[in-house]
Request: fold
Amino acid sequence: MNQLRVVHVINQFYAGVGGVVKADLPAEVRTGPVGPGQQAARLLGDRGEIVATIVVGDNWAHADPTTAIEQILSLLTPLAPDALLLGPAFGSGRYGVTCGRVAEAARERLGLQAVVTGMHPENPGVDMFRRRLVIVSTTQSAAGMGKALERMVALLLKLADGQHLGPPDAEGCIPRGVRGNLLHERPAAERAITMLLDKMAGRPIATEIPLPSFAAVPPAPPVADLARATVAVVTTGGVVPKGNPDGIESRRATTWRRYALADVTSATPDRWECVHGGFDNHFVNDDPNRVVPLDALRALEGHAFGRLFPELFTTVGGTMALEQAKRFGRDIAQALAAGQVDGVILSVT
Amino acid sequence: MIEETGIPTVVISALPDVQLSMGVNRIVPGIAITHLLGDPGASPEAERAIRQRLVRAALAALEQKVEGPTVFDVATLAGSSAPAA
Reply:
């Protein structure tokens, strides 16, 4: 069998160049394995060879990520890899995000299938890339290097063989949210009854369909002085200017928009409409104030609270993927912070 | 996401239990999914009063310090602000 040509991507710290003071190092290629790559090479055995290591400075990769990724790809392409190993980055945020970006670019642009990285579940790179990449779940610190590399190399070889991965907990990787079919020896009704009996008896149970978990958000402090506060209205209820000028989709929306409210005293049906595809809109189309209560806000503005932020932030929340919703949330939050908004009324349908 | 940036945010929703389970910190219950802040069965004046009451409650919720996900009672909050001029 042909040996796999494996390229390993690591940061300057693990290459032994140095810590934060050396983090501006531009990406460079070293021949053969470097640092943790030595152990990965042993684990690959005769199945593959680490032909080169790309060393990337943590800060350099983040100063101008687009250019950095292009440069790393231009180093990677001539190495003609069959497989790409990245990290593990453990809990290191910049390192993890770089691993994710390079891994994704290599999959999309070079068509590489065997691409594996490793991160601690709380690494910010996990949230950004876990749906699209195979990420081995590691410890927070490099103490877990041995075990992480073992899993990473095992999964890399599986992917290189074109094998499908099993359930995440069996493979030791972070769930991608992919559901696969498998033949179970016991029918669902039997398994459900067993689970119910276990639950009634207080025995531990493991769900077969884990629901998405929502990380707790620490509450923001209250508005200090409502009489002087700028309050903005945000909605997922799909209220847009009549004619939906930006074509916000009625479900699975791909965009959010901000619309001027400067001269708007009420969300009247001649100027506004509702394009939300998840509920019967006719009550809202009769009077869009029923989702965006501009008439009430204008009546209260200047005495019950300071002033209304002169723009409406709107999208359609229906059947939106969680990752997309998070991105919209981040972007809208940024816009609100830039507008020095003190408090937000978010109407959701 | 908005609360994470430190801007207090009140969610008006017809499904406050769903918001609660998602960990939304300030929740004011709306009227119904198809008319969140209104009542098509009421007279226009009565409906405007209902909506103003909900908005008042939402504004008051922004002034409240919360320790975690909280569903507010509209009657309590709307009564606590000064009446509209």
About this structure: Chain A has a mean pLDDT of 92. The radius of gyration of chain A is 26 Å.
